[in-house]
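User: I'm curious whether this sequence folds into something compact or stays loose and floppy. Could you predict its structure so I can see for myself?
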Amino acid sequence: METLRKSLVIALIIGSQFIQAQDQKVVQEAFVKSYALETAKKQNEAIDVLKSLNNSENYPTQLRLAWLYYSSKRYDESLAAYKKAAEIMPASIEALLGIVNPLAVQKKWSEVEQVYLSILKIDPKNSQTNFRLGQIYYNRKEYAKADKYFSTSLNLYPFDYDSMLMSGWNCYFLGKYSEAKELFNRVLLYSPLDTSAKEGLGLIK
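Assistant: Here's the prediction. I'll summarize afterward.
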């Protein structure tokens, strides 16, 4: 009797592993098919393939669906899928940056701002997020706020073109002319014919 019981347990374990292996194969095949359909510009069919998995708690599936919705201009559905991915993996900067995509297309800048602030709570030194948050405040002419985020981005990447140029203009509007001049000149080392940097230097003279 004991031998029979052990045999049943072993059979159940093997059976469970076999089902999991089958499930994994099904998921992999669905992803492969979705890539082929996307390449053929059949996004809606690619979406249907992944939705048929009924795999709403799977992070890669939700992230992939979010991208396909986004590329199909189905922005509300994309946003929902990215948010679902972020719920599954709360520390995922990847998913949070994904959320920004449909929000930005719809020009929901206040919501974008909040997502970026959430990212910086996880990763305060994230250069991309600091730079983009700086851009939001710069475009609102909130130069003092922008300065904090541009400075972080610039300190991490001191010879990055965008960080140098935007920091230069932000310093100019803050009245920090010597810093702006130094940054515009640094931009010209990167891009000797840069018209924006030359314009900035012309205004300071």
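Summary: Residues 1-22 have pLDDT under 50 and may be disordered. Residues 67 and 99 are 10 Å apart (CA to CA).
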